[in-house]
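If your schedule permits, I should be very grateful for your opinion on a structural question. Kindly check, if you would, that the fold set down in the tokens agrees with what the sequence suggests. Thank you for your consideration; the sequence and its tokens are set out here:
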Amino acid sequence: MSLWIWLLIACALAYAWKLVGYLVPAKLLEDPRMSRVAGTMTIGLLASLTVVNTVASGQSLAADARLGALAAAAIALALRAPFLLVVVLGAGTAAVLRMLGWN
């Protein structure tokens, strides 16, 4: 099968999954446990995406300036810095590390 067929199948499945969401009873969605689970899953998915984008380079692991930038951003978040400052510190750290030769 060509790549386009697989892409169309994936689109159809994603759309079908979204339509199934409308069939979920409202009583289930109003449950406080469901809100906690949905919030926790969102945080977990974003955290895993961040880690994968930080330490992966294609099919291999990489320890480069992105790792230092993530560490600087994590420290800034732990110190309750504003989000814009966290982003600037992470980007600045990555720039400095790359300038020092840690690619």
